[in-house]
Design goal:
The protein contains 22 helices and five strands. The chain has 492 residues and is mainly alpha-helical. It is 66% helix and 5% strand. The mean pLDDT is 92.
């Protein structure tokens, strides 16, 4: 193959998408489900099969988008997590394509090509939970990118209204997947007001703000309507998705722990690669007079604040800032190469090679390969299968704790939790404990599962009343693979 042919292939967006598709699909085949996948698979399943919607039958501090996706997945393919992951793979490919279009419009095709490689490869990093394409952030990122795309699109006055509404609509969908997309909503709004609408009258600016906000409210309202037709009230939704997030789902960490997490994930990690590209982008003076420069900065700064909100820095949370970073990297590198007198002799092909080498998901690909050929034993899944055989579909079970193994066992059992508070993370107040106790009395579980030697944590979370209920109404049936299984005395 000729050198020019190789280069043409390397900069061909379709070829890049095929290359990334192979990497995405391969890494999505990892046989391990993570904690969130078990949670959402369980919620989607009981919604689809048992008619028990989120917020009423299962408490989890997410907006409904991800539950809808998992419920549809269960309806079409039952408990097959790989369908949801493939949907996430497609979402990531679409995100990559629109980043190409954004960079091409703002700067050049070469910038678009660079951004595709940077974004696509980074989304597979182990640091960012790269095998788990079924995370909320994957879908949130897609619609955030589409929102930015529509914001920069309108050059023709006739399409201003249309593009603003579509931008808002996309951001509303992003928020319907994860609340923190509110930072992107604000970022795009500020970008529009300060740099895109500066040639408009005050009246038209306000009109634009209204249209953008209306688009956002429209998509959020649609997700709420889906819940409403499943008997979930607005109060149920606000309490289950928003208030609980503030009160319990995102606990305030001390400054030391917050900084420690920040340091380990964003300073002494592979993420450090991005700082070079940020500096490269910021120090190219010709950009500073261009509106898009400030739009990207605002987007990055506010989404970076969103990533810092909880202080935990889980890998998938960091995905929120990758789009703006990929644009910076793509435009910054492309401009530096093409406009720097000292670098005129550098072939862009070599830069692509360097980017692929720097950003390739080595660790995640290795782990996926390892687990594909040598799948780890899954004691939680075995526990779930055992529970399934010992119960009927009408039997309830309950897990005491929020441990990964317990959630996995609950999902694998194909049974329904007695209480919507099946995850101890969200049991933080006496009113929650009262609900759990009432649920246990009304829908008394045949089995209650605990992690062995976890009594101190369980007693602290659930309180004396539930502790006494367990002691008087249940007996320790057996211990299996680190689980304590309690059987209802009436069943003995």
């Amino acid at each position: 193959m000729k050198k020019n042919s190789i280069y043409n292939l390397l900069i061909n967006p379709s070829a890049i998408l095929v290359f990334l598709f192979v990497i995405f699909v391969f890494n999505s085949l990892i046989p391990l489900l993570n904690y969130d996948e078990y949670l959402w698979s369980y919620i989607g399943r009981i919604w689809n099969r048992n008619g028990i919607p989120p917020y009423l039958g299962a408490v989890e501090n997410k907006t409904p988008g991800i539950f809808i996706v998992y419920a549809v997945s269960d309806f079409l393919f039952e408990s097959n997590i790989f369908f949801v992951r493939i949907v996430g793979v497609i979402a990531t490919l679409i995100s990559t394509w629109y980043l190409f279009k954004i960079c091409t419009k703002l700067h050049s095709k070469l910038a678009g090509v660079f951004s595709m490689y940077v974004f696509g490869l980074t989304m597979c990093w182990f640091l960012l939970d790269g095998s788990y394409f079924a995370h909320t952030e994957v879908f949130m990122v897609l619609f955030s990118i589409l929102g930015f795309y529509f914001i920069i699109q309108y050059e023709n006055d006739k399409k201003i209204n249309q593009h603003l509404f579509l931008a808002g609509l996309c951001i509303g969908i992003a928020i319907s997947f994860k609340q923190i997309a509110l930072t992107t909503f604000v970022a795009l709004l500020l970008f529009y007001i300060a740099f895109k609408a500066n040639r408009f009258s005050i009246k038209n600016k306000i009109k634009g703000i209204v249209l953008y906000s209306l688009g956002c409210l429209t998509s959020i309202s649609i997700s709420i309507l889906i819940l409403y037709f499943n008997n979930v009230t607005l109060h149920n939704y606000l309490d289950g998705a928003w208030i609980i997030l503030i009160n319990s789902g995102s606990k305030v960490l001390d400054i030391k722990t917050h900084f420690f997490n920040f340091y380990n994930k964003l300073i002494v990690s592979r993420f450090l690669i991005f700082y070079f590209f940020i500096i490269l982008f910021l120090f190219q003076r010709e950009f500073r007079s261009k509106p898009f420069f400030w739009g990207i900065i605002i987007w990055f700064v506010l989404d970076f604040a969103g990533v810092n909100a909880s202080g935990y820095y889980y890998g998938h949370q960091i995905k929120q800032v990758i789009p703006s970073l990929a644009i910076m990297a793509g435009i910054g590198m492309s401009n530096f190469i093409t406009n720097n007198l000292y670098l005129k002799s550098i072939n862009p092909k070599r830069v692509i090679y360097i980017i692929v080498i720097l950003f390739f998901p080595y660790r995640q690909t290795y782990l996926t390969t390892k687990f594909l050929f040598n799948p780890p034993e899954s004691s939680p899944k075995e526990m779930g299968n055992w529970i399934n055989k010992q119960t009927t579909k009408d039997d309830y079970i309950y897990i005491m704790g929020g441990d990964y193994k317990l959630v996995s066992a609950l999902f694998s059992s194909d049974r329904v939790s007695s209480s919507k508070y099946f995850n101890s993370i969200f049991i933080t107040e006496d009113k929650h404990r009262k609900v759990v106790y009432s649920d246990l009395l009304e829908k008394t579980p045949k089995f209650i599962l605990k992690i062995e030697n976890d009594s101190v944590y369980v007693n602290k979370v659930y309180g004396r009343q539930i502790e006494e209920f367990l002691k008087h109404d249940y007996s320790l049936y057996r211990k299996i693979n680190g689980f304590e299984i309690y059987l209802l005395n009436k069943s003995l």
